Amino acid sequence: MAPLTTKDVPVPYGRNFLMVPGPTNVPQRVQNAMHRNSEDHRSLDFPKLGLAALEAIKKVFQCRQGHAFIFPGTGTLGWEAALTNCLDPQDQVISVRFGQFSHLWIDMMKRLGLRPIELDVEWGEGLPMDRMEGLIQNDRAHDIKAVCVVHNETTTGVCTDIPAVRRLLDKYQHPALLMVDGVSSIGAVPFKFDEWRVDLAVTGSQKALMLPAGLGFVCASPRALERSKTAKLPHVYMSFQDHLRSNVDGFFPYTPSVPLLYGLVEAVKMLEEEGFEQVWARHHKLAEGVRRAVRAWNLEICCRDPRLQSDTVTTVMLPQGVDGVQVVKVAFQKYNLSLGAGLMRLRGKAFRISSLGDLNELTILGALAGVEMTLRECGYNGFKLGAGVAAAAEYYQQHAVQARGFTEAMAKI
Amino acid sequence: MAPLTTKDVPVPYGRNFLMVPGPTNVPQRVQNAMHRNSEDHRSLDFPKLGLAALEAIKKVFQCRQGHAFIFPGTGTLGWEAALTNCLDPQDQVISVRFGQFSHLWIDMMKRLGLRPIELDVEWGEGLPMDRMEGLIQNDRAHDIKAVCVVHNETTTGVCTDIPAVRRLLDKYQHPALLMVDGVSSIGAVPFKFDEWRVDLAVTGSQKALMLPAGLGFVCASPRALERSKTAKLPHVYMSFQDHLRSNVDGFFPYTPSVPLLYGLVEAVKMLEEEGFEQVWARHHKLAEGVRRAVRAWNLEICCRDPRLQSDTVTTVMLPQGVDGVQVVKVAFQKYNLSLGAGLMRLRGKAFRISSLGDLNELTILGALAGVEMTLRECGYNGFKLGAGVAAAAEYYQQHAVQARGFTEAMAKI
Amino acid sequence: MAPLTTKDVPVPYGRNFLMVPGPTNVPQRVQNAMHRNSEDHRSLDFPKLGLAALEAIKKVFQCRQGHAFIFPGTGTLGWEAALTNCLDPQDQVISVRFGQFSHLWIDMMKRLGLRPIELDVEWGEGLPMDRMEGLIQNDRAHDIKAVCVVHNETTTGVCTDIPAVRRLLDKYQHPALLMVDGVSSIGAVPFKFDEWRVDLAVTGSQKALMLPAGLGFVCASPRALERSKTAKLPHVYMSFQDHLRSNVDGFFPYTPSVPLLYGLVEAVKMLEEEGFEQVWARHHKLAEGVRRAVRAWNLEICCRDPRLQSDTVTTVMLPQGVDGVQVVKVAFQKYNLSLGAGLMRLRGKAFRISSLGDLNELTILGALAGVEMTLRECGYNGFKLGAGVAAAAEYYQQHAVQARGFTEAMAKI
Amino acid sequence: MAPLTTKDVPVPYGRNFLMVPGPTNVPQRVQNAMHRNSEDHRSLDFPKLGLAALEAIKKVFQCRQGHAFIFPGTGTLGWEAALTNCLDPQDQVISVRFGQFSHLWIDMMKRLGLRPIELDVEWGEGLPMDRMEGLIQNDRAHDIKAVCVVHNETTTGVCTDIPAVRRLLDKYQHPALLMVDGVSSIGAVPFKFDEWRVDLAVTGSQKALMLPAGLGFVCASPRALERSKTAKLPHVYMSFQDHLRSNVDGFFPYTPSVPLLYGLVEAVKMLEEEGFEQVWARHHKLAEGVRRAVRAWNLEICCRDPRLQSDTVTTVMLPQGVDGVQVVKVAFQKYNLSLGAGLMRLRGKAFRISSLGDLNELTILGALAGVEMTLRECGYNGFKLGAGVAAAAEYYQQHAVQARGFTEAMAKI
């Protein structure tokens, strides 16, 4: 057969490699769980679904003592729900800006009438613990009502040591609420709501939970729930108290997204079948492969401190002269590969590779090969083709695990 | 074959007859449009979907001049978005309580710090136009900033003549914003945002749009959009201005529910293929059949004024001694039929039959037969079995339409 | 609201009422079980699926001692597989023509080179047991190698008393194989392969098993399996022996329809959850409602002997002047109702209403109401509108069962 | 974060990389087209679907003058249909055994009572054209009724030059029917039924057509159709004549697999949107990448003649001491990668990598990385990790194409 010439195509073929840090791939099993007709959300039997969903999400937060709320909405709504249910107008809060998402949360605080103390750091760095300690130490009047931190800055791939923040507050017996944005972390990396004594934690459906966007989750400690009885920032849709009244019987105060509730129950079942510890280990392994690939490409990881490097997203810094916007575009149009773009200050200077959600080694390796071809095409030649894939594959092979009972699982896909 | 005895079953068989006024049946075609993996909501090509969805929902509102917002959320969120984007704290608004949903909206107004003037009527009646006129006429200072009306009270099946409210405001050249809750009406019965000069209209995905719950829609007139630039009720997630900035390029300010956007585009395509006028006519025809059945059962329709009887839901009053809670329970457990319960003041005294969404004559007739068996079982014998079905069938036969080109449509199911 | 005029529509709305005796409605749960990517049918783990499917179909036949084959194909292929695997060219077989399907099977026998003894009866009647007895009694040389009977003639809605045929063969100790076409019966009405000592039974996926067409099933007794080792009618694709060799390890001799195997396992799980006895009782109840409706319409049921009336399909005779072709057409185009047409000799003179598969009372009642409107429209006025529905509803109400634990089931839909 | 230990998992995570040469990946778009309730296959409107499906499959064969049959079944059934419809018992046919599938077809011929002249070659070689020429040349009596060749031996990845076989018959004006097994080729590589004057060609749904198994297709030339009127091998289910009688009106002689027909129409639509020439070019490109990887691993491709190397499957020979059964097992259990096993004579000595169906560069590259890890693990160290991926990636980058209008396509996924 003579080789045929290929030309531009009107349509992409094969599966899109979705490597953005959310929305993540929705497993067929979860897609199918959501594929159903609607049902009456006030029926006699609805509470079984309602209670199952409420129970499932608590497990993800690793929370037994508080309550986890399920809002039709997104993580952004979760931020607002956490703030408006537990704070009064003009309340002072500490917050650190180390990427776009922490920036947007701070912006929200201001627009809601709160007074955030904004701590800025270089993007790529983690929390300035010393400056935070100074503020806490000096706030003897306890004017600071909350410390709001992002667990995993999706912009930079920098993590936060939540237990360290908890210890800081404890050290000074400071009563500020500890609020955590865990949108791109919770479910994928260790997060222990009760054990770490977090007061409010927020996540969304379209990340570690492998669902489409459409649910915002807020987990609240008993202390936060108590606070929500009297907090004065106006809110109705997001009201903890309204939800509590309905949730107790397995209902919701307005029409819930029935398919997403079924999807949530199924997704958490998948995580439990694999085991949460195992899921976290898998995310670590997959991310470590990505990091080894980046180093093999002779590129920098945005997050400088290896101890803070995220297991759900790796932000890759590009050398001068290589345009990050072009990288994302070429990857998408030529290789059907969706990479995360550099955001705000990192726009054009970086791109992001997710290792979050329903992924496995071969998907990561295929994506890394796609990045290699893209980098070449965009003018970066500082590595030998295949070098990144080889580095990751070597690591994956060393840490390979064997799936037992493949079929039981596949039968459910 | 000797007849076999039947006994209670662990599981229901056949399809659930979902006759609650939302969530409504999701057509297979719409279910399939939503059955997909996630995709990058910031990709180069995402705007085609984003713009298609934004365009689609405007058609449903019959709006050309304003902007229609798509929020991950529900109609309740839509209410709050309409209020918080366009009003200041302590603003005075007129609102009429004629069922549970108007009641809840008023409750929200108060909790958000507005000052509603609450007009109460008997449940089953429509707007007290004379009392409203008095208020408008006397408000020479224009302290009243908005008139908030429910287009279709899902509790009672009573409609509102929106053009009449518009005329009332015009008569006194009153500048109050006209806000309409069209959650259980828009898309199913005539609603003309531009022509009727509505300022803010709210609906949700799980009613006439035949989608699962999960999207709240708010349509805003140019005047409302202008007002939203300066309104002072705090809000971020629901911010019109944030959405406008992203929507202009086909994006959203946070992760949208991608499957629901695809579903929305498909659902509106279905409505357009049938034709909006035709969809409205169909809802009228199906509802009229239900009403004729109710009369044949010698029962009262909650909505006394025939001109105000809803084409999307019929609330049926039960005679003394017949328990509405029991009716809903028996219908569900014995006939796999989901009826709407009587709400609040009507609890136990009424039940509701929806004619909203993806239904046809035979589904209604099957449901009516189910109601007849249920009523019998619950002790109501004031009718001859089959009488309601016959009354509806007679009407449907007289108004039968013929589907041309069945296959083109079925090919897409 | 002024009533709106309705006109012909380009597309049907609502769900098609599929009341033909196959293909039947596919439950959402079964549709979802089939919605998956392909998988390697020679993988290490495939046998778990293969064995589960083979086990499942045996339960449907109520067979423990023989083997049930799963062919990619239809019931027609099942007929041919039964014949070619167990007979030699020129073999004599007895067969009764009492409808289109028994006619087609006889036609196949002749084309395959067999010599059927064809017994004809009026359509609407059952097996001529006396004439069959005569043939068996006189065949002392045992030239007759098989007796081939249709269990449920889908054309006429007439059933066969299989145990009576068995007793007939036993009475004369005649070794002919007992072959049964159970395409439109097995799984829906009592059928007991082992207990009745059937030798070969055939069914298909698109009837009681609630799957799409695409699988033909043949159940073979140990005696039939033995016979298949030496039978000389040529066949390869349909070879029992090839399948046996692969099936023993859970494989198939060529690529199986993976989604259909998953669907089969799920469908049988549904039948088992309900209970086979209960499934049979349900079919009887639903069919009895249909029969009562037919009588209330003052129409004749094709099957004259009430003891032989089918619980899966009722053939309704039309009076002179009412065109059956028109009935089917009007029902489809005006009411989105798919009825079975009269076949061959009954073309234009009858139509058929199925009570087979995933149906419930309300679906039947809706369909009956559709038949009533259609009959009116086609010029038959010999009944009062609603009379058939009322007769069926009365029966259904008297025999209503209550579903316990609705939610567990709905959670799986 | 401290690295976590990983251990064996009960369930695989992420997507299975399905790299067997059938069944191939079913695109979401095709899965959704098949996700539907059943419908009446004798309805007034069914022919639109029937005719669309019959038209679609003809395009795939590149046939205008003959007829293409759609059988519920598989390619194996297609083989049998081609033989039994056009040959008489004892007919002589030429056939070449160069892999398992050609072997099985020959076996079928014998069991059906034909007399194949069996030509054997080394596995890895193509057709022995000289020996075939000798047979044709010497058959002056035209006793040879058919020449049966496999277009693409899925066992060895060896192709056949069909036009060369045609020329051979023409050279001697030999009237034998030219029968082609194109199960793993048609739709993926150039095949031109009319232009090459093939008489009978067979394929199945689960290969290039990206559907589940369940449909066998046979394309017949006018000459073959003529022959089918009188051929004497017994057959009914597979009868061309029965199908022709029904197909002319858009129907089928027995219940068709409705979802598969919808899937077929959608799949062919996808192929047409991409363009058949483009689809062939894509398969060539993807396969060429695989071959370059194999060479970079210093392994042999089973097919020795580069001109005959298949673009749909590459059979890779393993060195002494590396067990092919183990390779397939490790790939599956450790990397969720499904490779084709070595078959019959190649069992344990080879494995196969498919490039057939709905695949793209990144999927192939991910799979190649998986093969590399697997080979390492199975004791083969004759290459540097990443070498195969790099070789393929280099080629893919050089031949990269850009997708225009991504979204239009994705909107349909």
UniProtKB/TrEMBL annotation, chains A, B, C, D:
The modification N6-(pyridoxal phosphate)lysine is found at residue 207. Residues 31-330 form the Aminotransferase class V domain. The keyword Transferase applies. The keyword Endoplasmic reticulum does not apply. GO terms for biological process: glycine biosynthetic process, by transamination of glyoxylate. Its cofactor is pyridoxal 5'-phosphate. Coiled coil: none annotated. It comes from the Eukaryota. GO terms for cellular component: peroxisome. Its EC number is 2.6.1.44. Substrate binds at residue 352. One of its GO terms (molecular function) is L-serine-pyruvate transaminase activity. Belongs to the class-V pyridoxal-phosphate-dependent aminotransferase family. This is alanine--glyoxylate transaminase. It comes from Cyanidioschyzon merolae (strain NIES-3377 / 10D).
